[in-house]
Amino acid sequence: MDYFPAEKFYNQTTRIHYNHFDITLADGKKVEEIHKQKIYRFEEYFDFIDRSKFYVHKCYKAFTFKNADAETERAQFILKKKNYANI
Question: CB 3.0 to 4.6 Å from 19: which of 12, 35, 72, 74, for a disulfide?
Fold first, then answer.
């Protein structure tokens, strides 16, 4: 499998992003995959994480070590577990 075309769609109302793939495997078998994911605003991730047992140690622009911000298209979060003894 070297290449497979994808159809993409983003519903702004529900903030759901869809990817639809029609894949042809090496043996000729055809497979359909549909990925569906909720897209959250940048700040929402921090809110979710703050309510968890973790905190954001670092937040980078995807596949870099540059700091992410609200304008970043894709961010990667490095989380650490909170140590309640030091709070």
Answer: 35
Backbone angles phi, psi at 68, to 5 degrees: -85, 160
Whether residue 10 contacts residue 39, with contact meaning beta carbons closer than 8 Å, is answered with yes
pLDDT for 83 equals 87
Identity of the residue numbered 47: D
DSSP secondary structure letters along 34-78: EEEEE---HHHHHHHHHTTTEEEEEEEETTSSSBP-TT-SSEEEE
Mean pLDDT by groups of 10 residues along the chain of 87 residues: 72 95 92 94 96 96 97 95 74
Euclidean distance between CA atoms 27 and 66, whole angstroms: 42
Give 75's strand partners.
Answer: 61
